[in-house]
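Minutes, methods subgroup
Present: GH (chair), OT, SY

1. OT presented the first of two proteins processed in the latest run. Sequence and structure tokens recorded below as shown on screen.
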Amino acid sequence: MNKTLKAILTVLALCLLFVAQRYFFSSPDSLTPSSSLSKEEKDPSTSSLQGKTLSLPLCEGRGSTILVEHEGFTLLFDTRTMCPLWVAWELTADETRGRVTRQGVDFKADESVPEQYQVEMWDYNGGQYGRGHMCPAGDMKWSKEAMQDCHYMTNICPQNAELNKVWWEHLERACRQWARQDGAVQIVCGPVFSDNPKRFGKKHKVAVPKGFYKVVLSLKEGREKALGFYYTNDDAPQPMEDAVRSVDDIEQLTGIDFFSSLPDELENRLEAMTDLRAWD
């Protein structure tokens, strides 16, 4: 083989090597860690919000739902009821000291869901139920964006006015106090419906819940605890101590698995608790 042919073959080999490297390491279909592990290894039971790790509820066989993430909270919207199935967030001690107000903030349709499910604030006009926040504005005072986002109608349910302004509000204030004393709490709440709920709405027919649940988790080291609550959607007096349930009770009521990312032994122990005094 003469020198000229050798040189030509060498150049061709180098070109083939360069092309192979470009294909295997730059192709969008190549299985490099940056293109595969981020999707495959993500835990579906958790969500990351502002650097927090939030244990999301698990629901089986709910094909009519849409997962929505907003500033400070995550929710699962149910297109059958036009209400969230659950809303989940972590509230820290620092966040309870926020100074953002509701002034100038209106309820609004949520463009995160398809147009036919975008409930409007005026859908509630003329009805006997008010617009009840699931993730409350009082928990979102730490951020202007979070305050605005919690007024999306995907975070709202038809709620009796007396329940909203008195008994549900008492629980919301208690959760903020627990966040201050323990450093942080994780909260999940949502509606409970009858088999054939009443509906109302100017354009979108929103189902009226028969009640509401809330579960609260504190992972303060050495004082880990959890508690559930259930309130009927009416104007009956409902002091907090009468609304107490275990998280296990709420799971049985709703068919939702809460705090599933916890180690099983810890989850089982905390979800059986019913002692409100443990939160003093």
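2. SY then presented the second protein from the same run.
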Amino acid sequence: MPDGATIALGGLSMNAVPMAFVRELARRKVRDLTVVAIVHGMPVEWLVAAGCVRRVISGLVSLEGFGLAPRFRAAVQSGAVEIEEYSEHTLICRLQAAGYGLPYLPTKAGLGTDMLALHPETTREQRDEATGELYVGCTALPVDVAIVHADAADTRGNVRVEPKLVWMDSELVKAAAKVIVTVERILPERAFRAAPERTTYPRFAVDTVVEAPWGAYPTSSYPTYGYDGAFFEAYQRAHADPATAQAFWDERIAGPETHAAFLDANGGPETLLRVARRTT
């Protein structure tokens, strides 16, 4: 991952985020990233804390019911990180335009709002010459690398999201020059051949697959496990004090050398059993 890249993070808020990949990216301290995060929180927090981010392009960055994203908020308020803010739909339109190879995509979303004035170079009012109708033109947003998390892949790189894709990861995959997918498990190719209709991303759309069990933790990876609310609560409590926040970062996020060590630092098997979804 080169310095200065534009990356897009899959998942939605506390669901199916490629956190194991994000943690390693933060530990590598890649610099000057532009991070496309349609609706996110913790992955942006980690990359900002590691000093990796120059700009965030997003519809929302927060920790949902657990509060605001403290590292992100402080970085934006101080000017250390730029924020380019859109509605979810206009940002998705920008990604769709890139995926379709178009210069822009029209939408009615955003008409009559102040949002367009924030970045007239990428979202602007335009009038259709044939009908005279007014719309918003959303300039394409090319992505260098998209990183998404899924339930499974086969040995050829076909990827399956279970039970189905319900958020915007497919738009990231289509808009990106390169696609990295972290998965909970690798299955034999025959498992995908037996149910081809369940394939979410075919192998020609994917560049790299990484097997990463519990790779979305502390966010969820349906149907295997839910998000760890205790982690989010502890994270917020720690950020009431800068020294405590730094200790939390060092001991429970950036310090562990491996993903297994990271899981152990956050409760190990006891935590994993607590967040695992029961199937019977």
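Chair's summary of item 2: The first strand starts at residue 6 and ends at 9.
Next meeting: continue with the remaining queue.
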